[in-house]
Design brief:
Rossmann fold; five-stranded parallel beta sheet; single chain; AAA_16; 8 strands; metal ion binding; 3 domains
Length: about 400
């Protein structure tokens, strides 16, 4: 069939042509927005799940829902080696710009923007008199956040991330309240937020919820994100509403394939849908990947199980390079050895395994493998499923590794 008309879109964070199986999450967020609009207290949201389940896609869809209701929004992607000051400042600046035309008090808007600028520029401790400024401090002096007002003094510029973030978000929420709206700050890859910044986010959300302020944080991250938040602030378990994003059930997976195809006057035989669900296992990224290759292979409608069988090797080859291989290549030999042991123990299903079992399989002491395990966690390749357990963040990664030669 015509590849130009191929509707399927496997891509990182790319919205599929049919966002199937996420109605409950979208409805839950609508309730949050409505409650805040009516002055009701509401918790911030955290989306968790493996890679490839569509967390970023859903995060973007939630942002679109907030924008459609006239909220100010900003989005950032956390990085383990970067403070949140500048990304949060840029995201919040965007949100305030969206609300600005409706705020009649120019002086108040400029005052809050000055606080945003002060927060952004306070990205490194100021050197003692006579001391040489650090590289971060020199960068701070050169870098400007693109806000054409003077930086505020004495507000969100203490250098204490927790204090400063509370003051910053409180002032921004005041602008939203003035125009009868809200602000939503979206944070992707939230598990990579630095420890001090995680604590600051929790403290700010706690303060805002007590104030009933119209500002929420919506985070997305890997399955161990709740543990990261809980380790920072014990009350985070009650501070956020956690939504686990999982693979699609059969009905949703079929809809993700059938609805876009129907718009192109193409159909699937039931046996083809059976084969595609077995191959993709309900993971949204895999549904799109197998759907795209199968479309290109098929000669005509309806698409058959034979078409799926012919397409499967090509789809698996693409996934091996782009989805699995790119991650595997980031690992050191020691880390690859650790992951191969995990795959042997967990099987093709990629089940969680005990860290002690991995050490036993490698004939090593658990403590000697801690550096490799911790590095894999920082790279986002594995996560601690629970105490003493480790699992892959990428679905079907165990199956991929079992097909690769061990180091």
């Amino acid at each position: 069939m015509d590849p130009v008309r191929n509707p399927y879109a496997p891509g990182a964070g790319q919205r599929p042509p049919e966002l199937a199986g996420r109605d409950s999450e979208l409805s839950a967020f609508d309730v949050v927005l409505e409650r805040i609009a009516h002055g009701r207290p509401e918790r911030s949201l955290v989306l968790t799940g493996l890679r490839g389940v569509g967390k970023t896609v859903l995060l973007n869809q939630l942002r679109s829902a907030a924008i459609s209701r006239g909220w100010g929004t900003g989005k950032l992607e956390a990085r383990p080696d970067q403070s949140l000051r500048r990304p949060v400042s840029a995201a919040l600046h965007m949100a305030l710009r969206e609300l600005g035309p409706r705020h009649r008090d120019v002086e108040t808007m400029e005052s809050v923007l000055g606080v945003v600028k002060a927060f952004a520029l306070r990205s490194a401790p100021r050197p003692a008199p006579g001391a040489r400024p650090s590289a971060d401090a020199r960068m701070r002096d050169r870098w400007q956040p693109g806000i054409d007002v003077p930086a505020a003094v004495g507000r969100a510029d203490s250098g204490d991330m927790e204090i400063d973030l509370v003051e910053l978000l409180s002032d921004a929420a005041g602008v939203a309240a003035d125009v009868g709206s809200g602000i939503a700050l979206f944070i992707d890859e939230m598990q990579d937020v630095q420890t001090d910044d995680v604590s600051a986010i929790c403290a700010a959300c706690h303060e805002l919820s007590q104030q009933g302020a119209p500002l929420i944080v919506v985070g997305a991250g890997l399955p161990h994100l709740p543990a990261v938040l809980s380790a920072s602030k014990s009350y985070s378990e009650r501070l956020f509403r956690y939504l686990r994003i999982d693979r699609l059930d059969r009905e949703a997976a079929d809809r993700a394939l059938l609805a876009p195809a129907a718009r192109e006057d193409v159909d699937f035989e039931p046996a083809a849908l059976d084969a595609l669900y077995a191959a993709a296992d309900g993971y949204p990224y895999f549904v799109q990947a197998y759907g795209k290759v199968t479309w290109d292979v098929a000669a005509s409608s309806p698409i058959t199980a034979a078409d799926v069988a012919m397409a499967a090797p090509a789809a698996e080859a693409e996934l091996a390079v782009g989805f699995f291989g790119s991650r595997y290549d980031r690992a050191t030999p020691a880390e690859r050895e650790y992951m191969h042991a995990m795959a042997e123990l967990g099987g093709a299903a990629g089940s969680a395994v005990g860290t002690a079992d991995v050490a036993g399989a490698l004939g090593r002491k658990p403590a000697s493998l801690s550096p490799a395990r911790d590095s894999l966690i920082k790279k986002g390749l594995v996560y601690s499923a629970e105490r003493g357990q480790i699992a892959f963040t990428v679905p079907h990664f165990g199956r991929y590794l079992l097909r690769q030669p061990a180091c």
